[in-house]
Amino acid sequence: MSGGIVTTVSSNGTYSFTKPNREGITLLAGLGVEGDVHAGVTVKHRSRVAQDPTQPNLRQVHLIHAELFDDVAGAGFEVAPGDLGENITTRGIDLLGLPTGTLLRIGAEAVVEVTGLRNPCAQIDAFRHGLLKQVIGRDENGEIVRKAGIMGIVLTGGEVGPGDPISVELPAEPHLPLERV
């Protein structure tokens, strides 16, 4: 599997659906994006904290493929990097097709392990009415298809910015498909 590039990086120190774009972000091993509200060893997403605040944070970094923005634009939705709360926007990688445990080597040092799919929520429709139907659907078997990016944990920290290369290292087989985290 080939690699891609980072197009945009985003972070926010307060709870907000969107995240402002930055010139660069720092990934911290075992924590996530430095200064981001979702960084930490244990869960930070509000719904997960309400369920069990001691569960491990498998959602330290949120990545979305810029190709999704191209797709939803075709349906009349204007969505820009950071608008859906992602930390890293990529181009050239089929993020949704990666297996669980894939390693993404980003920039000079950072390594992110893919943990699963982002589960699109109703806040997406609050952001742009009707957008939720564009980022979640059903396949030919009636199974839910989540298209709003992937989540990962930081194994090795480092600086990440627009233009940084991303290389993909697949885990040993058998590959496990991504599931909601």
Keywords:
4 helices; 181 residues; alpha+beta; seven-stranded mixed β-barrel; 13 strands
Report what the structure shows.
- This protein is an alpha+beta fold.
- 13% of the residues lie in helices and 31% in strands.
- It contains 4 helices and 13 strands.
- It has helices spanning 46-51, 66-73, 123-127, 132-135; strands at 4-10, 21-22, 25-28, 32-33, 61-65, 88-91, 103-106, 110-117, 136-138, 144-146, 150-156, 158-160, 165-169.
- The strands form 3 sheets. Strands 1-6-5-11-8-7-13 form a 7-stranded mixed beta barrel. The protein has a 3-stranded antiparallel beta sheet with strand order 4-3-12, with no helix packed on it.
- A hairpin with a 3-residue loop joins strand 3 and strand 4 (32-33).
- The protein is globular and about 35 Å long.
- The model has no long low-confidence stretch (mean pLDDT 95).
Summarize the structure.
With 181 residues, this protein is an alpha+beta fold.
Q: Choose one word for the global shape.
A: globular
Strand residue content: 25-35%
How would you classify the helix and strand content by structural class? Answer: alpha+beta
Helix/strand order: EEEEHEHEEEHHEEEEE
Distance between the termini: 23 Å
Total number of beta strands? 13
Query: Within the largest sheet, what's the order of strands?
Result: 1-6-5-11-8-7-13
* Helical coverage, percent range: 10-25%
Number of H- or I-type helical stretches: 4
Runs in which pLDDT lies below 50 for 5 or more consecutive residues are none
Radius of gyration: 15 Å
Largest sheet: 7 strands, mixed, barrel
User: Mean pLDDT, as a whole number?
Assistant: 95
